[in-house]
Amino acid sequence: MKKVITLVAAIMLLVTSTLALAGCGGTKTLEEYVNSDSDVQQELSDLESSLGNGGSITVKENNIELIYKYDQTFDEATATAMKPQLEQAMNSMESQFQGMIDDLKEDSGIDDVSMTIVYQDANGTELYSNTYQ
Fold first, then answer.
1. For the chain, does the N or the C end have fewer beta carbons within 10 angstroms?
2. 3-state secondary structure at position 128
3. pTM above 0.85, yes or no
């Protein structure tokens, strides 16, 4: 659960950083905005470092993808058992994610903003993912 909270804190920082400067410039996508602002790129880099080994943040078009990679591998039975726990934890925070997406849409003027959260094991096997729009 601590890893989920870390991820949520990282997302909140990302959204705050993006919103703080979203009105600057006439970009049409979040990706264009990030690519045009070195301060935001640095914020994303710092945030990505906070996710630990293998964690990553990618902005493509209007989607922010956060990948949280555990530092261990899991057998199929364990991965299967983890999925409902991760899903429950993420569902409990759905309103927070939706609020962040709504803020991004409102402040950026971009209607099709989305955020994808992905959990992987050390081998890159997906344990859980969800996209919030």
1. N
2. strand
3. no
8 Å CB contact between 34 and 41:
yes
Q: What is the 3-state secondary structure (H, E, C) of 62-110?
A: CEEEEEEECCCCCCHHHHHHHHHHHHHHHHHCHHHHHHHHHHHHHHHCC
Read off the amino acid at residue 36.
S
What's the pLDDT band for 10 if we cut at 50, 70, 90? low
Q: Which helix (H) or strand (E) holds 19?
A: helix 2-21
Selection from 91, 85, 88 nearest residue 70 by Cα? 85
Q: What is the pLDDT of residues 30-82, one digit of tens each?
A: 898 788 888 878 888 888 888 877 789 999 999 999 999 999 999 999 999 99
